[in-house]
Every structure is written in C-alpha cells, then in structure tokens.
Write a structure and sequence with these properties.
It is built from 1 helix and 28 strands. It is mainly β and 378 residues long. It starts with 7 loop residues before the first helix and ends with a strand. Bound molecules: 2-acetamido-2-deoxy-beta-D-glucopyranose (8 copies). One 2-acetamido-2-deoxy-beta-D-glucopyranose binds next to strand 11.
Length: 378
C-alpha cells in the first residue's frame, strides 16, 4: 500500500486508510546504527527499510510527543572515554533521520547514560538516567522549539550508591517515578510544569532485598504502578496515593520464571502496558546464552489492578541484554520484542482474550550490537 500516490500526502492517506504498514525504529548496544523496520500487519512480515549511521550507540531510544524527534542514550558500554550524554535526532520521516546534537548530562556522575524518556506534556522536557559506578544521578534536559535537545538544565542526585535504570511519568506528568536498580528503591519526584525540573518527594525500599527495580510503568488512570524486579524476576504492583502521588507496595507480585528456577540465572527486563491498558506485558532474560528468557501477559481490571497472569512463555533465545517488549500503540494485538544475543526483532501476536501469544514475524539484524529497544513510529 506504500508509494502508490505521487506525493507524500497521498502516500500517508493510503497508509492510514489501510493501516497495513507500521514503522518501528530500533537501537543497538555498541554498534553505530539506527534501524527503521516495517511491519505489515496483514502479511505479517518485517522488513528492513533503512540502516542509518549514527555517531553514538542508542541503547535506549524514545520518541518525542509528536514523533518529530528521537532521543537516545550515548551508550558507553564501560568505555570511560565516552562521557555521559544523550543524543538528539530530527525525524523528517522514519528513513530520513538527522543527528542534531549530543548533550553531556549528569553533573558529577561519570557513568554511562542508560535510559531516556520524553515528557508527553509541556514543556516536553527529556529525562535521563545513568548506570554503572558513580551513576546515582538523573538529568533533566530542555528542548528547543523544534524539539531538539537544548541543555541539561538540572542534574540531580538520588544517592551516591544508587543507579536508576528506568523512569515513568504519572499520567498528568506531575510526578516522575524512578526504578533504582542498584539502590533497590523506588523514587518519586514532582515535576515543575513550567521548567520540567524535578524535586524529591519520597523514596521507598523495594519489597525484598536484592529485588532490584529496573523498569516502571504507570496505568493511565494513575491508581497503579508496576515495577519489574530484575533481581527477583518478578512483576510488583504498587498502588498510588491519590493525594500525595506516592506509590506503596500492595503485596502483589508475580513470577517471571518457572517454579524451581533460580532468579540468579535471570535478569528481568521490562514491563509495559498494551494499547488499551487492558493487558500488561513483562519479560525476563537469561543471564547465560543457553538460558531462555520469558515473556508474560497479565490481565488488568479497569482500575489497573492485576487480575491474572495469563501465561509465561519461554522466548526463543536468552534475549541477550535486551528482550525489551514494546506493545503497539494502535491495538492490543501486537508487541515488538528485541534480542541482542544473535540480533533480531520479533512481533508477537496476543490472542483476543490475552490468553496466549505467538511470534508472527521475525527479522534478523546481525551487526554485533543490535537490537536494544524498539519504538513504534506508526
Ligand atoms: C572508547 O570510545 C572512544 C570514543 O568513541 C573510542 O575511540 C575507543 O576506541 C573506545 N575504546 C574501546 C576500548 O572501545
Ligand atoms: C523521507 O524524506 C526524504 C527527504 O525529505 C525523502 O527523500 C524520502 O522520499 C522520504 N521518504 C518517505 C518514505 O516519505
Ligand atoms: C549538568 O551536567 C552537565 C555535564 O554532565 C553540564 O554540561 C551541565 O551544565 C550541567 N547542568 C547544570 C544545570 O549544572
Ligand atoms: C558536584 O560536586 C561539587 C563539588 O563536590 C558540589 O559542589 C556540587 O554540589 C555537586 N553537584 C551535584 C549536582 O551534586
Ligand atoms: C532515600 O534517600 C535518603 C536521603 O538521600 C537516603 O539516605 C536513603 O538511603 C534513601 N533510601 C532509599 C531506600 O533509597
Ligand atoms: C502487606 O503485608 C504486610 C505484612 O504482612 C502488611 O502489614 C500490610 O498491611 C499488607 N499491605 C497490604 C496493602 O495488603
Ligand atoms: C501458546 O502459544 C505457544 C506459541 O507461542 C504454543 O507453543 C502453546 O502451545 C500455546 N499454548 C496454548 C495453551 O495454546
Ligand atoms: C548497517 O550498516 C552498518 C554500517 O555500514 C553495517 O556495519 C551493519 O552491518 C549494517 N546492518 C545490517 C543489519 O546490515
């Protein structure tokens, strides 16, 4: 359905009318490529549309609210000559990607950038965190009128021994929640609606010692928050106090490994909501290449409380450093899964009732560093 029109406007019309081709962008660990891939939701195929050379590896990539910009980590992979920083790209379209700037951030922290997310609400500031030794900082980056990263306007400290691996906004962007993997904690900061700067509100210890919160996501009604616990291979549910915005653990956890397996052999990865927020996806990774990862889906009630864990399926590989799951933004049916042990992206299809899922498309992207995370552009 692509390219039948003589103009870009006609082509986009054809795409939206038929809704067949969806574009995704994929980052890497260590290699300097950014991939554009296309998923045909009728033929169930994945194809490489562009391989864009970039100056820094984006081990985590995030789109701006209007998809005009892409922000990425400048992943240092333990290479101390690479300073903590975030890269900013302009997307004319998904195959015309221009690097604008790479901005140093983190203040006194010297560890590599590990995660970045853009506020969907004004002033659309960008939030970055760091991982490794001397990583207990976060950075707030401003953007210019074109959405290009401007400057690290705030470098704030969690604790000197902490290292946050993932952050998420409350639905109104009043709060930023941070999963502190090294510090085994969950942090709440308030966000200034004018500047985007953050202020400490609360920090709480994870449910168990060594649980190690890695990523966090918030239900759109703001009542529940979910944390993937990397160390204990679990998904934990928190309820959010509606007056203070502070989450508390609601004693609900689900396993991301089979009974009898040892959490020490895994490092759980991701937790993310489906398009309608009726389902929650979560993944685990095998620490060893021979230990398969897991993918799991939960059904949520209208408030966001977890009703059931529907399945726990082994993934086809360990996932490497990835096994990052990104549900599609247009239907509950599809989610993208990335692997860096051999290098591929897969599309998983969820059954209508959420009871099971299957791989329906697979694309190898073998460059020695792919694939970190994927974002759906369309
Ligand atoms: C570290 O990064 C610098 C700058 O990109 C590069 O020149 C150097 O080769 C890297 N070192 C290692 C060991 O990868
Ligand atoms: C993307 O933008 C470039 C430059 O503006 C243009 O040459 C190319 O045709 C565009 N691609 C699509 C798929 O619209
Ligand atoms: C934050 O840290 C970066 C260096 O990592 C520095 O360039 C920037 O000026 C700092 N921002 C502020 C507001 O101090
Ligand atoms: C960075 O270190 C300097 C010197 O120790 C200190 O004055 C400053 O407050 C620190 N900055 C942050 C953001 O922690
Ligand atoms: C919370 O922050 C305080 C003040 O920085 C710190 O002493 C404490 O260790 C932190 N607790 C957790 C669980 O991170
Ligand atoms: C969670 O369990 C603890 C210890 O058993 C108990 O004190 C607390 O009330 C429980 N909280 C909830 C929300 O059920
Ligand atoms: C669920 O799907 C997997 C393939 O992803 C398949 O192997 C398995 O048999 C299915 N389970 C059920 C209960 O249908
Ligand atoms: C993308 O391009 C880079 C640079 O030319 C190359 O090294 C890499 O192998 C390419 N990736 C794929 C999947 O072909």
């Amino acid at each position: 359905m692509r390219g039948i029109g003589g103009s870009i406007a006609l082509t986009s019309l054809a795409i939206s009318a038929n809704a067949l081709i969806h574009e995704l962008l994929v980052g890497t660990f260590g290699t300097k490529s950014l991939y554009t891939i296309e998923f045909d939701d009728e033929a169930l195929t994945l194809e490489l549309a562009a391989n864009t050379s970039v100056p820094v590896s984006g081990s985590w990539i995030a789109l701006s609210h209007d998809k005009a910009n892409l922000y990425t980590t400048a992943y240092g992979q333990g290479n101390s000559t690479i300073s903590p920083a975030f890269a900013s790209y302009t997307l004319s379209n998904t195959t015309e990607i221009t690097h604008d700037v790479t901005i140093p951030a983190g203040g006194n922290c010297t560890a590599t950038s590990i995660f970045v997310v853009a506020d969907p609400n004004p002033p659309h500031a960008v939030y970055g965190v760091f991982f490794g030794d001397n990583a207990g900082c976060g950075a707030v980056l401003s953007v210019d009128e074109d959405g290009v990263l401007n400057a690290a306007i705030q470098n704030y400290t969690y604790t000197s021994s902490g290292a946050v691996h993932g952050t998420a906004f409350s639905p109104d962007s009043k709060f930023l929640y941070s999963a502190d993997d090294r510090g085994n904690a969950l942090w709440t900061h308030s966000i200034d609606a004018t500047t985007g700067e953050v202020a400490f509100v609360a920090n709480i210890t994870a449910p168990t010692s060594g649980a190690d919160p890695r990523h966090v996501t918030v239900h759109p009604n703001g009542k529940f928050l979910y944390v993937v616990l990397e160390g204990s291979s679990q998904v934990a549910q928190y309820s959010i106090d509606q007056s203070t915005g502070i989450p508390s653990f609601s004693n609900v956890t689900y396993p991301l490994l089979s009974s009898g397996e040892d959490a020490a052999d895994f490092w759980a990865d991701e937790v993310a909501l489906s398009f309608s927020s009726k389902f929650l996806w979560a993944t685990n990774r095998g620490r060893d290449a021979s230990t398969l990862g897991y993918i799991s889906v939960f059904t949520l009630d209208a408030d966001g409380a977890i009703l059931s864990q529907n399945f726990l399926l082994a993934t086809t590989t360990s996932g490497g450093a990835a096994n990052a799951v990104t549900p599609s933004p247009f239907t509950d049916r599809f989610a993208a899964l990335t692997d860096s042990s051999t290098g591929f992206v897969e599309i998983w299809e969820l059954a209508d009732d959420g009871s099971n899922a299957t791989v329906v498309a697979h694309l190898d992207l073998v460059d020695g560093g792919c694939c970190a995370n994927a974002v759906w552009y369309s």
